[in-house]
């Protein structure tokens, strides 16, 4: 088992390294001069040259990659070309802001999805199942900005004017200091994510509930609740860990649109801004961050999967 | 109360239908006395499992009761019609008064729970009076398994198939039920394990006076175990009576067919063919999967026109060896020679003529034909690859071969899933024969098929061999087939040939103890 | 929804995988397949006939001016430049649909090929392809699009390429899984025994047997492509003005949602209906592939 | 106009309160540096923290700020500024001539020239000549030098200025600053204008997205926003809680044709394309009518603006004739556009549509703003640009002389250059106007710009906010001059 996990870890590290390479190359291709981008219409040749030197844009590529990679190990993500300060300071608040959004969405959507999924799996074919499944199918098809715009119209600008539609955070104050402004972004993400968890949970649970051992447990005369809790649910742990992982990974990348829509000061907005400004260091950092979240979360899910499977868990015993 | 003691289960007019309304059971009635074993036989899909589960008042998803009574006489208590009870009351009886032993223990044991726990669960659910731990150990011992703590802490995947099945039986007997339903508990087990399980069942039922409904389609098992037999056919009980009666003097046509299909060890062996030099010869074949040595130096030769039976229990390496011969395995050492010419190990390296002359029939007809190709298309592949026949010639050859394996020409354009198992196996055999090979390797070609179909395939192969005069290596684990198909027997055990000789000699005076054991445990009518 | 996907119920490949034709027939038995087809069909009709119908119905082309911006002239008012919303709506589905279909096709073909090669080849080839796949997968789809569009600019072919490419690794996973589950079937070994060339085995023996999962994937990918292209346009990175395009229309008219909602509502509803329709069809395909029949559900 | 008249605060200004302003744009590159403002939020911050010697007021007239007066020598080579009596920096130190000298040294530092340096190329030396006097010595005569000094990016800072301690003489002092998000300011107690500013505190919030900004206003999360999308003006007008501030400005969004590249090197092609434009329609479609038509000339508020030239109108027949004459009857050109300013991409599309009538096929190439201002900026053959209100000569210095930093059209006309150079050296207003009229006529006849109109600036604020007045500079919200703004009761009613 430990070998299995170690192997998985190693693979993740290799993938992560390849990702750094890819991120670096991809950002190199960004056209336009960051120095010009910073200066905008106000750029004069002298100011551009001065800035380029200051940003080490005149060094060879491999040297830039190595020093960037080296910096990653020491927690130095480079210097933002547009703030001309460290990327870490620029991103610190944004990362925690995005995390708040993600964690809230995950914390709400996961149990909700699991509950809906289990509930519908238990009453497959009945009215309740059909309603929940139908609704989740429809919501799952909608692009997130459609959901977001609909919520804004409904709750912020037109129908009811009860919730703020944008996030305004005074400096030094955390995004969660005014919880009401988190409602709509979180709700949008929850609506995007829950249907998937519901559907996956329903499918997993349906399969488990149809399995021989659940039927056997029933034939042993056990109560439906015991059957569910002791025999069925443990088998959903692995698959559910996978779904939740994918959802989390998606959330990390998918917040871009939602943050843009709600002007939420997170990494997604930073990314769009940075791509526009050719702020290579920030693009690299954010992309890498999102990719790392994906890799780590998937790694965790796999480890949970391994731990939850007695066959793999007991491998070491034999 | 006296009548209650003579009947443990009484089923009258039981009907089951799908929720869409299609009848699955029409009107099934039977009864079982305590200590008695009633065998329920019938072809696949006839409704055996459905009838068995109804005895527990359980219907699978999509099925529902269509009337009738299932009266249970618990050991201590009033008789009840389980179908009239509510869910909670049914639960009370299940696992307690009436228990179920599933067909496939690998699927029915929860892979995430330790086996001891799973047995203890039944006891806890039904509020077992004594110490549950002791009872678990006791019942494990009863089914002939180690009862120690360490064993109880194993997970299902750490047990062999036979052990898993016995855990299932232990679970069923844990609460000392008055009725057990055993759903083909020995299918998928090898003969020896099967014998062990059957022994356990017989002992437990008679010792504790338990009524057993034993579902199977293997009449040989029935002859050994059952007191009475009930035959099901398409949702109806067509015949029911004392085992001897039914087996000796079957009334229903289906029962007769079933009986005719059972291979008989006592049959006259086929006449030995004239000896000739080896057309195919394997020399010192060794092969391992990682650390696991599967073949440990096999020498085997088949002469022209001869049929050799390769006999061995599951996992002994039969398939591995035959695939080495067919060129489907790479990593083996030793040589396979065709009329003295050594062959390359992998099929891709062999010449088309070599490929043409050795043909292999796969174990399962359900996976050896591409589900997306018509039968004719599949049969045509070897012709396209290995011969230079024109399209029309190929068509003609395919038609001839279909005729040879007794397949109707109109089946040629069907897809495999539109054929029955037997028909598919014939198609697979046709594919092997279409290039008129010199050597035919048949890998357990009957084991995936129903008993009644088995017989026809064996018969067909015998005829074809005589007609075409090819050499045949017939791989099986069923020694009962020997007289019908083989001239010689080679017994494979643990990757070695432990015994080899003419059929008669081996059957009458086996030299290796494994062979004698096999002969002893093989159920006969 | 641009990226939430692989968690979709990947149907366990049953004993005999359903044939594409059979799969469609089975899927058709689900009511949601019919509803989905009707919904998607209506939108597809609008998208295909719209460019031709628009000028006839409204008397305006997609680029001429029907009035002042965001004024309630004509049936559905005017857009931010005073062009007729209805005309632009009618003309605006073709590109979205075309790009979505092309991107989906690209992703499926590429992904199926990669997945089949990895699944059938096995060994180091499998590891190599699948690790490469992991690397691509760990890039969020939107980030790839953002970067690519920043590098090259919002070209139609680029949208198709980027979306197709981001679909490919996800499809490859499914295709690989399906291939692995048929790879060890004896009919593949039989073909090997007859020395059938590997390419032929892939195309003739394996491909027909994984059409079930691939069809399901196709349906899903189409749904995602639609949402994805629309999302990119929403961020201003998709189809570019003055083209009439649903995604772009939402972006252009979003600002006047309160005054002239049609410019947003029409395309949003069309995209939603199309996406829901394709999703319903994909779902019934998935159910059919998973071997659930109607009877079973009822 | 609004149908329901909102109760607007009246009476004397009230002191106190916090004004929250939503400002368009900005990002991680936001700065508090007085001399390199780039985005709207930068400009807003600079205007409230710092003051240059003089600056254009709401009516686009020069108004003395840090300087009390600015006088030119008769040859227009030496300009002398007298500093305002008693003016102090935020920390209470008085402004000295040395500070002014240091400020201009910082701006024109050859190693790191700031934005304003480009416009001061003729500045030779800045010298302190007295307690309160500073002398600007020019290398070439320039009668419009006062105009060049009147830029917001030339704010006077102390000699020991450090951007970490952003000190100036503006009405507000910096309190907090988060790049890309928000900045807050408090009242400068040392401000020289008595009583001002009225607000205790000012908060500037960045908005990248138009929708978000409007929504923030509608949901009362901000008190004022700049740059209302023209399409929404009517909506906001009809909302009694909201006041709309519309200012006529000299802001223009020209199409720029490179006069040195085919097909635009043929003056007939340029004239044809100018005739193709239906300016009224441009104003209507692009600006929803919120603007005034242009006559291919800029600087409409300059006293020397040439009003005698006839207004150019769409004339397809004439355009076709010119094109045919030039041998390009089926002209096919690419127009590079980017969302550099609201209306830019829209104008490109309307132009495309109008050009069709004359058989001209315009292909629109939309790129992002960064690419637009990237390496190819100033070398696109046919593109657009965007300028705030300026007077004629400074604008010429920026964009219409061979050496001008932003000469998008590569305009190099010796006759024009001669006229402008003479005018720069001419101190007599009448003579100068005469020269400038002739220069404008040349541009009107052969120039590479299509100036189809001037954009009105539309901003909006909550009804309880008072003190905003229309401003011609093109800078939003009364030129971001929040010193005059005050808050009535938050209920929207007046005292
Ligand atoms: N859940 C179900 N829904 C609908 N029909 C079913 C269901 N389960 C079984 N059937 C049908 O009922 C019939 C009897 O099935 P059953 O499993 O009882 O047969 P069996 O005799 O046990 O077969 P086998 O020997 O293959 O186990 C079959 O025709 C089968 O197709
Ligand atoms: N691909 C494989 N990898 C590892 N071990 C294998 C593989 N194939 C077979 N084995 C092992 O090799 C041994 C022999 O397998 P083989 O399939 O030849 O047995 P068999 O006699 O044909 O059994 P059966 O009667 O079940 O078909 C078994 O222990 C099996 O577990
Ligand atoms: Mg059964
Ligand atoms: Mg085998």
From TrEMBL, chain A:
Coiled-coil stretches, from where to where? Answer: none
Its subcellular locations are: Cell membrane
Give the membrane topology.
Answer: Multi-pass membrane protein
Q: Which UniProt keywords apply?
A: Cell membrane, Membrane, Transmembrane, Transmembrane helix, Transport
Pfam families given for it?
BPD_transp_1, BPD_transp_1_N
Q: Per the UniProt entry, what are the Gene Ontology biological process annotations, in alphabetical order? A: transmembrane transport
Q: Which residues form the ABC transmembrane type-1 domain?
A: 95-301
User: Which superkingdom, per the lineage?
Assistant: Bacteria
GO CC list: plasma membrane
Q: Which family does it belong to?
A: Belongs to the binding-protein-dependent transport system permease family.
Q: What is this protein called?
A: Peptide/nickel transport system permease protein
From TrEMBL, chain B:
- Xref: Pfam families: ABC_tran, oligo_HPY
What Gene3D superfamilies does UniProt report for this protein, alphabetically?
Answer: P-loop containing nucleotide triphosphate hydrolases (3.40.50.300)
**Any idea which UniProt keywords this protein has?**
ATP-binding, Nucleotide-binding, Transport
Every copy of the ABC transporter domain together lies at 9-259, 280-519
Biological process (GO) annotations?
peptide transport; transmembrane transport
InterPro entries per record: AAA+_ATPase, ABC_transp_ATP-bind, ABC_transporter-like_ATP-bd, ABC_transporter-like_CS, Oligopep_ABC_C, P-loop_NTPase, Sigma_54_int_dom_ATP-bd_1
User: One GO molecular function term?
Assistant: ATP binding
**Family label:** Belongs to the ABC transporter superfamily.
The name under which this protein is listed is ABC transporter ATP-binding protein
Q: Which organism is it from?
A: Amycolatopsis rubida
Automatic annotation (TrEMBL), chain C:
InterPro entries noted in UniProt:
BP-dependent_transpt_permease (IPR050366), MetI-like (IPR000515), MetI-like_sf (IPR035906)
Q: Which organism is it from?
A: Amycolatopsis rubida
The record's listing under Gene3D superfamilies reads:
MetI-like
Task: Say if the entry is tagged with keyword Transmembrane helix.
Answer: yes
Topological relation to the membrane, as annotated: Multi-pass membrane protein
Q: What is this protein called?
A: Peptide/nickel transport system permease protein
> CDD domains of this UniProt entry?
TM_PBP2
Q: Name one Pfam family in it.
A: BPD_transp_1
Principal subcellular localization: membrane
């Amino acid at each position: 088992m430990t070998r299995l996990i170690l192997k998985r870890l190693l693979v993740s590290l290799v993938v992560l390294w390849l990702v750094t390479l890819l991120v670096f190359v991809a950002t190199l291709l960004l056209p336009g001069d960051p120095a010009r981008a910073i200066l905008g219409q106000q750029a004069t040749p002298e100011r551009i040259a001065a800035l380029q030197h200051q940003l080490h844009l005149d060094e060879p590529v491999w040297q830039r990659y190595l020093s960037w990679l080296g910096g990653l190990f020491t927690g130095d993500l480079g210097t933002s070309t547009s703030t001309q300060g460290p990327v870490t300071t620029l991103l610190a608040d944004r990362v925690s802001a995005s995390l708040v959004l993600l964690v809230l969405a995950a914390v709400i959507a996961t149990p909700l999805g699991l509950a809906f999924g289990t509930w519908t799996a238990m009453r497959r074919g009945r009215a309740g199942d059909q309603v929940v499944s139908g609704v989740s199918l429809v919501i799952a098809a909608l692009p997130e900005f459609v959901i977001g715009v609909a919520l804004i119209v409904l709750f912020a600008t037109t129908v009811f004017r009860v919730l703020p539609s944008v996030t305004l955070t005074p400096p030094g104050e955390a995004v969660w200091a005014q919880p009401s402004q988190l409602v709509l972004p979180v709700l949008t993400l929850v609506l995007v994510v829950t249907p998937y968890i519901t559907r996956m949970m329903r499918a997993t649970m349906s399969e488990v509930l149809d399995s021989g051992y659940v039927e056997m447990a029933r034939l042993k005369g056990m109560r439906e609740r015991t059957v569910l809790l002791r025999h069925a649910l443990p088998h959903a742990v692995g698959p559910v860990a996978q779904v939740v992982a994918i959802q989390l990974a998606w959330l990390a990348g998918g917040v871009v649109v939602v943050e843009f829509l709600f002007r939420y000061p997170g990494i997604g907005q930073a990314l769009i801004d940075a791509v526009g400004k050719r702020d290579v260091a920030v693009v690299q950092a954010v992309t890498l961050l999102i990719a790392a979240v994906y890799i780590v979360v998937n790694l965790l899910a796999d480890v949970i999967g391994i731990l939850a499977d007695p066959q793999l868990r007991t491998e070491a015993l034999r | 109360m006296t009548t209650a003691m003579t009947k443990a289960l009484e089923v009258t007019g039981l009907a089951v239908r799908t929720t869409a309304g299609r009848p699955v059971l029409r009107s099934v009635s039977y009864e079982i006395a305590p200590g008695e074993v009633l065998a329920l036989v019938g072809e696949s899909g006839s409704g055996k499992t459905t009838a068995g589960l109804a005895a527990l008042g359980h219907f699978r998803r999509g099925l529902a009761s269509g009337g009738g009574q299932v009266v249970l006489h618990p050991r201590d208590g009033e008789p009840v019609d389980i179908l009239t009870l509510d869910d909670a009351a049914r639960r009370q009886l299940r696992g307690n008064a009436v228990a179920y032993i599933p067909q496939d223990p690998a699927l029915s044991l929860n892979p995430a729970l330790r086996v001891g726990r799973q047995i203890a669960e039944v006891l806890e659910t039904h509020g077992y009076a004594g110490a549950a731990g002791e009872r678990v150990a006791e019942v494990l011992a009863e089914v002939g398994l180690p009862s120690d703590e360490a064993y109880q802490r194993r997970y299902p995947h750490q047990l062999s198939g036979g052990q898993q099945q016995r855990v299932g039986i232990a679970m069923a007997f844990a609460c000392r039920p008055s009725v057990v339903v055993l759903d083909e508990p020995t299918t998928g087990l090898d003969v020896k394990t099967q014998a062990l399980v059957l022994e356990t069942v017989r002992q437990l039922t008679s010792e504790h006076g338990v009524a057993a409904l034993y579902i199977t389609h293997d009449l040989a098992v029935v002859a050994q175990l059952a007191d009475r037999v009930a035959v099901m056919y398409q949702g109806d009980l067509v015949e029911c009576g004392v085992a001897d009666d039914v087996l000796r003097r079957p009334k229903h046509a289906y029962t007769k067919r079933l009986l005719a299909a059972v291979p008989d060890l006592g049959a006259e062996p086929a006449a030995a063919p004239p000896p000739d030099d080896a057309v195919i010869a394997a020399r010192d074949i060794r092969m391992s999967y990682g650390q696991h040595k599967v073949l440990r130096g096999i020498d085997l030769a088949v002469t022209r026109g001869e049929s050799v039976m390769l006999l061995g229990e599951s996992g002994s390496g039969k398939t591995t060896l035959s695939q080495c011969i067919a060129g489907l395995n790479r990593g083996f050492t030793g040589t396979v020679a065709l009329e003295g010419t050594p062959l390359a190990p992998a099929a891709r390296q062999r010449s088309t003529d070599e490929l043409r002359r050795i043909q292999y029939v796969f174990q399962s007809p359900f996976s050896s034909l591409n589900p997306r190709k018509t039968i004719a298309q599949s049969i045509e592949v070897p012709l396209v690859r290995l011969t230079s026949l024109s399209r029309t010639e190929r068509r003609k050859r395919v038609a001839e071969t279909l005729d040879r394996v007794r397949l109707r020409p109109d089946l040629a354009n069907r897809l495999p899933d539109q054929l029955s198992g037997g028909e598919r196996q014939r198609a697979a055999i046709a594919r092997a024969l279409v290039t008129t090979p010199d050597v035919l390797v048949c890998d357990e070609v009957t084991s995936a098929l129903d008993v009644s179909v088995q017989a026809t395939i064996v018969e067909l192969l015998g005829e074809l061999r005589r007609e075409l005069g090819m050499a045949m290596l017939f791989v099986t684990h069923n020694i009962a087939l020997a007289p019908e198909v083989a001239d010689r027997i080679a017994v494979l055990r643990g990757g070695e040939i432990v015994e080899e000789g003419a059929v008669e000699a081996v059957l009458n005076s086996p030299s290796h103890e494994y062979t004698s054991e096999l002969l002893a445990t093989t159920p006969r009518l | 929804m641009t990226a939430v996907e692989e968690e979709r119920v990947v149907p366990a490949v049953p004993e005999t995988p359903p044939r594409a034709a059979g799969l469609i027939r089975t899927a058709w038995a689900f009511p949601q397949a019919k509803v989905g087809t009707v919904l998607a069909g209506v939108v597809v009709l609008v998208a295909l006939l719209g460019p031709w119908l628009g000028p006839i119905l409204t008397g305006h082309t997609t680029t001429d001016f029907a009035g002042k911006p965001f004024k309630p002239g004509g049936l559905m008012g005017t857009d931010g430049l005073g062009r007729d919303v209805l005309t632009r709506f009618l003309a605006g589905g073709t590109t979205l649909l075309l790009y979505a279909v092309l991107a989906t096709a690209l992703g499926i073909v590429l992904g199926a090929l990669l997945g089949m090669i990895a699944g059938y080849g096995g060994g180091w080839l499998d590891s190599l392809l699948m690790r490469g796949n992991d690397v691509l997968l760990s890039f969020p789809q939107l980030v790839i699009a953002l970067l690519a569009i920043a590098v090259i600019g919002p070209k139609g072919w680029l949208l198709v390429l980027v979306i197709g490419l981001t679909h490919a690794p996800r499809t490859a996973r499914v295709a690989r899984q399906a291939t692995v589950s048929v790879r060890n079937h004896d009919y593949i070994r039989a073909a090997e025994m007859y020395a059938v060339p590997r390419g032929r085995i892939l195309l003739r023996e394996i491909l027909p047997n994984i059409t079930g999962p691939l069809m399901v994937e196709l349906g899903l990918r189409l749904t995602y492509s639609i949402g994805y292209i629309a999302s990119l346009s929403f961020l201003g990175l998709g189809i570019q003005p003055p083209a009439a395009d649903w995604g772009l229309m939402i972006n252009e008219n979003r600002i006047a949602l309160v005054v002239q909602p049609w410019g947003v509502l029409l395309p949003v509803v069309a995209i939603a209906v199309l996406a829901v329709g394709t999703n319903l069809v994909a779902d019934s395909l998935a159910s059919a592939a998973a071997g659930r029949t109607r009877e079973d559900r009822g | 106009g609004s149908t329901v008249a909102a109760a607007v605060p009246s009476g004397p200004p009230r002191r106190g309160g916090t004004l929250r302003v939503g400002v368009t744009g900005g990002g991680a590159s936001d700065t508090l540096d007085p001399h390199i403002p780039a985005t709207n939020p930068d400009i807003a911050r600079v205007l409230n923290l710092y003051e240059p010697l003089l600056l254009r007021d709401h009516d686009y007239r020069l108004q003395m700020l840090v300087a009390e007066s600015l006088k030119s020598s008769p040859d227009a080579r030496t300009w002398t500024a007298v500093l305002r009596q008693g003016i102090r920096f935020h920390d209470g130190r008085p402004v000295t001539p040395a500070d002014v000298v240091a400020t201009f040294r910082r701006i024109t530092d050859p190693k790191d020239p700031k934005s304003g340096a480009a416009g001061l190329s003729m500045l030779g030396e800045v010298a302190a000549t007295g307690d309160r006097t500073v002398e600007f010595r020019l290398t070439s005569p320039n009668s419009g030098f006062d105009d060049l000094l009147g830029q917001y990016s030339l704010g006077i800072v102390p000699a020991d200025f450090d951007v970490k301690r952003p000190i100036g003489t503006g009405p507000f002092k910096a309190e907090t600053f988060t790049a890309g998000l928000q900045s807050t300011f408090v009242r400068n107690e040392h401000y020289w204008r008595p009583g001002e500013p009225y607000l205790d505190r000012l908060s500037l919030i960045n908005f990248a997205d138009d929708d978000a900004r409007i929504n923030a206003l509608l949901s009362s999360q901000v008190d004022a926003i700049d740059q209302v999308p023209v399409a929404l003006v009517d909506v906001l007008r009809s909302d009694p809680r909201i006041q709309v501030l519309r200012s006529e400005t000299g802001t223009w969004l020209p199409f720029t044709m490179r006069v040195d590249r085919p097909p635009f090197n043929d003056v007939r092609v340029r004239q044809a394309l100018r005739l193709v434009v239906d300016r009224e329609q441009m104003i209507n479609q692009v600006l929803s009518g919120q603007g005034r038509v242009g006559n291919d000339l800029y600087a409409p508020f300059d006293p020397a603006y040439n009003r005698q030239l006839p207004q150019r109108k769409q004339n397809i027949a004439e355009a076709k004739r010119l094109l045919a004459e030039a041998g390009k009857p089926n002209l096919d050109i690419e127009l590079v556009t980017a969302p550099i300013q609201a209306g830019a991409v829209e104008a490109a599309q309307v132009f495309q549509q109008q050009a069709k009538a004359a058989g001209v096929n315009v292909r629109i190439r939309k790129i992002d703003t960064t690419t637009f201002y990237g390496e190819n900026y100033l070398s696109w053959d046919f593109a657009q640009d965007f300028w705030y209100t300026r007077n004629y000569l400074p604008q010429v210095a920026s964009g219409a002389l061979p050496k001008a930093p932003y000469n998008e059209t590569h305009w190099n006309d010796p006759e024009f250059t001669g006229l402008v150079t003479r005018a720069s050296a001419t101190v007599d207003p009448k003579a100068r106007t005469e020269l400038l009229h002739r220069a404008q006529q040349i541009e009107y006849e052969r120039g590479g710009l299509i100036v189809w109109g001037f954009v009105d600036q539309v901003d909006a604020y909550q009804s309880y906010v008072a003190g905003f007045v229309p401003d011609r500079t093109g800078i939003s919200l009364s030129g971001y001059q929040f010193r005059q703004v005050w808050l009535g009761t938050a209920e929207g009613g007046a005292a």
